[in-house]
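Dear Dr. K.,

Following up on our conversation at the group meeting, I've run the structure prediction for Rod shape-determining protein RodA from Candidatus Ryanbacteria bacterium RIFCSPLOWO2_12_FULL_47_9c. I'm pasting the input sequence below exactly as I used it, so you can double-check it against your construct before we proceed with anything downstream. Let me know if the numbering doesn't match what you have in your notebook.
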Amino acid sequence: MIRHLRYMDWLLVISILPILVFGLLTMKSLSGDDYFFNRQLIWIAVGFVAMGLTTAYDWRGLKSSAVILSLYALGVILLVILAVIGFVTRGAQSWFYFGTAAFEPVELVKLFLVLVFAKYFSRRYVEIAMTRHIAISFLYLVIPMTLVFLQPDFGSAAILFFVWLSMLLFSGLRFKQIIVFIATGVLIAVVGWFFLLQTYQKMRIVAFFNPEGDPRGSGYHAIQAMIAVGAGGVWGKGVGYGTQSRLDFLPESETDFMFAAFAEEWGLVGVAALFLSFTLLFWRILRISIRSPDNFSKLFGLGISFLLVSHIAVHVGMNMGLLPVTGIGLPFMSYGGSFLVMLMAALGILESIAIRSSEIKAYEKEEFIGL
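The predicted structure tokens came back this morning:
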């Protein structure tokens, strides 16, 4: 294990540290007590343990069809059980509760689906343009996505779809098929609006286009978030001086509106530092993906990148009034153990890929020079 430290991508680990610190400082300043701050510290510690375990594990074991199908089945079973005995919180049946701790299965499902698609698309890289392979990969998606949608968790269901579509597009899809997918997406959106979306979800979308139309109702969250982001200015109001969050004008500021709370206190300078850290993180992930030895590991790295991009885009978009409010957290910053531990475990798998790839290259170099 010690020799593995030599080949770790330490910049990958370093890139998430300022993001974690930004989240902790913002969380600590949001209220008079340290409830969320202290619990998030615990989840960060658990996350680093998860990262250590997945780093130590040889990622090539995840290429086994039996392992991947078992993980997929576990994810679906958890979602089915959740639909039967899960607790309803804020209108969604999305969590298991164990005392004061909560577990959200969809976060594990996101990681499991990235593994499933990396396996399926890597084995059929040449044939992926065939309609039957696209259909089969969609079947892997549609079961958990439907269960998540029915919770109802529209935001997470949309992210699952985006990850599948992005990985599919980067697996060799033809332009004609891309057009078909766009047309299908429009059709699904129309059907979803009239037959699938709940009333409160429609109200959120209407409020997105015209939040001022109901400033004290469905448009309240969006308006308060935009006020918070704009109030930060260039330098911010300072840690602990954000009026929108501290005076409870901004609801769920430690989760759904973390970016708005952060932007109010840290301003444009802080936001620039945050996105610089995310840029470094994406660079290291893509670097590992490009240098990895096979299509499975390359697609896994891309899948995790797409997962992060979708979360960041949706969270920041809804905090700035560019997207409807969906309840999607900001990676490594928003409060929540399930999401954080899943991301840290995913980064551990990427570290495992980086380590084993470097070891193979070092061995080949020694063989070449005759050592």
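Two things stood out to me. The chain has a mean pLDDT of 85. The chain has one domain: 2-360.

Best regards,
J.T.
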